[in-house]
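Re: the 243-residue chain
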Amino acid sequence: MKAFVWHESNSPLHGLNPLAKLAACLFATAVVSTAAEPFTPACVMLLSLSVTRYLGHVPWSVLLRPMIFGLLAGFGLFWTYSIFYVGPGQGWLYGATMAARLLAILSASGLFVLTTDPSQFVRSLIHQAHVSPRIAYAVFAAYRFVPLQEVEFETIRAAHQMRGGVHRRGPLNRLEETIGYAIPLLASSVRKGERVALAMESRGFGALPQRTYYRQTTLGRTDLYFTIACLLAFGLIFASRFL
């Protein structure tokens, strides 16, 4: 099971070091966060979607699926700021800017999430960012628990349904139903965490200052060219607001 269902493909974007793609996302976020009009975030969004689609070979159906949530949330931001905004300028313009910011950051995040293998990202954090293996693998274990918890929740829900303990009306019944889900999920998470910790200890994880790796990640020229290209592209978008 792949955490957060990254789209597996043999594309130029998939072959890049995850830290190079993470840097591109940070560049996009910095440009979007300083925008005071919707044009700049819209350009960042279109550029991120185009790069993910054509360099990452991610189908439009997979790429635009998370954008549906962004559109709903963006619409909520737009009408909220349009009605209640009391600062300088027009409320609808500020609302459109906030909605465009959300969509731009979501599309830039998709560039990283949809084209990055989580295990490769952890290795790049250790090899290039020099993050401690204890911290990196702990983050990776938590990352992998997310889809497993979804499966566990469906199992608990099916067990409750077999006993007739779901879809009961009333706030007290709903609260009881929620607690009935939360306690088994918490117990399952604690058990999984203990098993992972025991497995790592039994294999001598962290016993030696140096360790070997079956797969290595590197930063090559392609990663450098991609980072420079993203920096120039987002820099031009940032400079265009002053023209």
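The CA atoms of residues 44 and 99 lie 13 Å apart.
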